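INFO  loader      accepted 1 record
INFO  loader      residues=212
INFO  predictor   begin
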Amino acid sequence: MLKLLRASKLINSGPNTGAGLRRSLQTSTLRCKWRTAAQTPDVERKLLFDDQLPERYRLVYRAPLEAYVSWTKNVSTATVSILGLVAAYHFNTSMNLESITQKINISMLVSHETDFYYFLAGFALINLAIRTFVAKYPLRIYKSADKYVAVYGSQLPFGTVKHYFDRGQISEYRNVLNPWSHIMYRLGNRSSMLLVDYFKTPSEFHQLFEEK
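INFO  predictor   done
INFO  writer      dumping tokens
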């Protein structure tokens, strides 16, 4: 996850003019490779089929590291599920958290029993951060006339979530508490991270801001 966030900062580094239409877009080698691949009709048809969208839509944005994001989410899901099942089993057999920690060799995780609570809190916060990232990281954006569809990873192990919005329904989303506010935009009523170098062309990014 840290690799992905560092990559996001590097991709979007540069002066911020405060207006999306005046943003300077730098063409990178990765972006050129993506544009070559994404323009292959078979690739776009497969993505459309996988995302269950009509053929009138065309791909205008594809985020990097989709497999990495999916893998991180699935590991988080599996870990939380296993720990949840173990905890539920022990609690259902009339055991409390303190007795559980006594039966587990917690010296492998923490040096003191009370630190186990901090470990659990940190684990919960990390998983919350992963879930928040997945919910705000569109994997693809499709366009049909003035209509757009952003496709996000589902919070479940498999599947995707679609968010529909119209041209012009985008604005920069600033939050001083968010360290990645330089890549945050509001698509309709949903805040999202956009890596501007991964639009098919710079004009596709600009057209998002055009009013109907």
